[in-house]
Amino acid sequence: MGTKLPLPPWLEHAGLVKKKMKDRGFKMADRVQACESCGEYAEETWSLKGGGQGMGGRDVCACMNCGRARSWKGQGAMRAVEDPFDLMGFLGITGTG
Ligand SMILES: [Zn+2]
Q1: Any idea where the domains of the chain sit in the sequence?
Q2: How far is the CA of 54 from the centre of ligand 1 (A)?
């Protein structure tokens, strides 16, 4: 029993999120930045290099405090932002079961 509060999915699955990002070839940047949404130094940046098959890279910023996530696809002028970005859906993590 106990009174443990349910965690938001990005925290409850923080380990899984990192594992899945690595599985997809993302590399986490060394530094953590301040989140524009909650102000905490909890925003991690992940980068995926382009695969050389016409695939552009992808960058993902995700705050491990409030869960705000953004993603950029492609490079240069073709760069397209997704904000907000459905990180859980992107990684196939569903529910809090
Ligand atoms: Zn935040």
Answers
A1: 14-91
A2: 33
Interval 49-63: pLDDT, tens: 876 655 678 999 999
Q: Is 30 left (phi over 0), alpha (psi -120 to 50) or beta?
A: alpha
Q: Give yes or no for residue 3 having a pLDDT over 90.
A: no
| Distance (Å) from CA 26 to ligand 1 centroid | 20
Q: d(Cα 33, Cα 57) in Å, to the nearest integer? A: 20
Neighbours of ion ligand 1 (CB under 5 A): 35, 37-38, 63, 65-66, 68
| Structure confidence by residue, pLDDT tens digits, 57-89 | 899 999 999 999 999 998 778 889 999 999 999
